[in-house]
Amino acid sequence: MNIYLDMDDVVADWMATAREMVKRDWNYGERIPDSDWQKLQTKQRFYRNLPKKPGADELVQWCRDYRDRTGSGLFFLTALPHDYTMPFAANDKVWWAHEHYPDITVFFGPFSYDKWRHCKPGDVLIDDRTSNCDEWYRAGGLAHIYRQWPECKIWLEETLK
Fold first, then answer.
1. Which residue among 40, 65, 129, 156 is least packed, with the fewest CB closer than 10 Å?
2. What residue numbers bound the domain in which 137 lies?
3. Can you say whether the dihedral through the CA atoms of 26, 30, 35, 36 is positive or negative?
């Protein structure tokens, strides 16, 4: 069994950084307006310097402890922007992970809608996108829609006992 952690808005605070940059708010699951996405694209190294999301260290440490106890795999499973407009995204996500969590390998969907292809029955996905979690379930895995560490911790403890 493997545990896969999404990066953006699970361990890296993508949404807060993007909202601050464009001076606008969106809801989870809402498509970001093209005009806002164009503003984000002006910062080509956007993904390289994202701050950690609150609770990221606690989530990662819980998963590391579980991995060490059970022999499970622990990986990041992230996605590239769907429109290829941020060419440094892949490199910068790997650098970000290496800086903050050097023991965790980064895999790419390569796109969000491809993540389910990494799922083997019983694998776990922690992701902020409902569609990714739904597709993961359909592929035979377990998934949690991530918003905050405390609720995820409860889910992990109840699900993985």
1. 65
2. 2-160
3. positive
